[in-house]
Task: structure prediction
Amino acid sequence: MNEGSSAAPRSASMPAERMRVFFALWPDAATAAALHARGRTLRAECGGRLMRRETVHMTLAFLGDVPASWLAVLEEVAGALHAERFVLELDRVGGWHGHRVLWAGCETVPAALQALAAELGARLHAAGFELEARAFNPHVTLVRNALRSPRQAETPLLRWPVASFVLVASERSADGAHYRVLERWSLGEGGAAPVRSRGPN
Ligand code: ATP
Ligand code: MG
Result:
């Protein structure tokens, strides 16, 4: 998105507030607890820093730093999206970047998840947002800075019923990133349009 053409005019002495934001799937309490437990198992095997239970998520589209005035456009894009509910079957764990990141993922990406990410990406692109060109690689980060990768890629099946997606602000502080859910949209059954629900829950 071209900041110069669409951001509200502002004086040079008052720089626009910026926010680091991304769209994500946010687990319900039971799924978050199950993912966190899987993270504990991974950490026991591989070492590293366990992600906090309340931060566990799956990124759908990462926007990075944007002027806060653009949030309304992001919310409009998300609200216009047509996507269905699905169950995400997490049945794999793995490591990336020399095990800096240990994650849970799926052997087969559900078509509905692929479609959700693709439609979101296409709509964001059409609205002028610049997204990374790299392919969508769905994963849930559970451990950071591990000492080794897990021996077994396959793990017991963890079923995550996905009924909504969220827009999240990533806020930096001395102890790392904290996430704040800004808005949530319910996914439809049988292709119904998403319904925006006020507030993070
Ligand atoms: P930190 O970067 O402080 O260690 P973090 O990676 O958890 O913390 P962010 O960098 O704000 O926090 O990232 C938020 C989410 O977006 C995370 O799921 C992260 O993996 C993902 N993400 C970050 N950068 C990108 C990117 N360039 N492309 C795709 N996803 C990204
Ligand atoms: Mg990061």
Q: What stands out?
A: Residues 29-46 form the longest helix (18 residues). The pocket of adenosine-5'-triphosphate (ligand 1) is lined by residues 20, 22, 59, 62, 132, 141, 170, 176-177 (CB under 6 Å).
